[in-house]
Amino acid sequence: MRRPGHTVIRRWGAALLAAACAGCHGSGPLLHPAHVLLPGKVSFGAGLSGDMIVAGATAPPEAGASAGDPAAAELAAQRKLSEITVSPGVAPWASARVGIEGGNEAGLTYTGRALRLDGRHAFPLGEAALSIGLGASALFAGGPGPGAGPTAEGSDVYGAGIDVPVLLGFRSDADLYAVWFGPRLGLELLGGEVRLPAAGAATGGPLVDASGQHLRLGFVLGVRAGFRHVHVALEATATYHHAAGEIAGAPVVLDQGTVAPGGGLTVTF
Question: Does residue 184 have a pLDDT over 50?
Answer without folding.
Answer: yes
